[in-house]
Amino acid sequence: MRNSIEFYYGGRSHRLADVAPTDMLLTWLRDGQLARGTKEGCNEGDCGACSLVIARLLPDGAMDVQPVNACIMPLANLDGAALFTVEDFASPDALHPIQDAVVREHGSQCGFCTPGFIAAMVAGQIAGVPHSAEVQIAGNLCRCTGYGGLIRAFEQERDTPQPPAFQAKLEAAKAWMNNAERGGFVLETSAGSVFAPADLESFAALRQQHPDALIVAGATDVGLWMTKGLKQPPKLLLTGYVTELHALEQDEAHFTFGAALPYSRVGQHLLQDYPEAQAWFDRLGSVQVRASGTLGGNIANGSPIGDGPPLMIALGARLRLRRGSDTRELALEDYFIAYGKQDLAADEFVEAVIVPRRQQGQRLMVEKVSRRVDQDITAVLGAFSQSADGSLRLAFGGMAATPKLAKTVMASRNPADIGQDFEPLSDLRASKDYRLRVAENLLRHFLNAEQEAAA
What we know:
By secondary structure, the protein is an alpha+beta fold.
């Protein structure tokens, strides 16, 4: 295995060997390259001031272009990728069309947040995203100007082709990536080690050799442990380069999502079967978070307020777990045992999430309740599915120490029984009584629709 990473930035390749587990992309850019157009704001992936554009090659050879939060992105996650910052978009002769539109629509005042907005919008323009400007910039916070001009700027230029100068940069980056290695390295530093295998067999072997290593996918949660919690894990084991963990398979009965597949790609397929989950998907972090964060990681860390598990439980998802060469499957609701405790051995890991395809006559409702619409931690998340035969799967997050099914209500079909399934806590997000009332009302809405349909 190699002892360095290599990525493309500023029109050339960069090879780095002395990369510690806690080294973040933003620090390397601002301090190492003096590329200070990309700003440090919240340092937790929430405000978007540090947004930049990352390009990677997909298995079919297409280039996937996404905005990411540089403040919580481990530098080791950049191997084989191409990086573009606000300094790259314009040419010596003209602003990028997005930049020009922001100026024209008075979308910038103090300018601190502007590079991040520009990066998010340029990435959306390149990718040809189908959603609204509000969704594309939901991960960016403006502190003084307001969003009207920014929204107008993106809507005016979203379908504009890339200017020749920047298009040439994209093509040069793709040519470099076509010949670049991705993964298959070990970084050993005085501050710790980073293991980045490129295949599943090597990953499983390293997991058994280093059961104390912290498994990291998109680092949308782990990044905060380092930047805010100041944790310094001595070993990281990266999932992002394992080909098999990025696999996406589907047949008539199931989707099988590799554990390292980012939400941005999971959503492309899942929402075709379950369009009712679109609002849930759009509020799952931000475009930046969904580009890096993974469904497998959201499940594996066992958070009681993760937005992915309740919907997956309602749909009857199963996990494939691997330990060495051995695998086993279990229902997702059985994976969560207690707060901070999952049915997972020290040297075992989540390999894939298996989600049933939509069945004829199936009904689904997903509702997230939080203080803010975008980028907020869940107070209550309800995901309810009813099969054509009338059987129910009613799942909640934020109501207990783990995401779980409301089994009493599933049997009684009486929303008032929710207190027999959950005894939530009161905290800064919501009180116990509020959570119970909200959960009961969500259930009532779903079950009343069932009765109205029967009538």
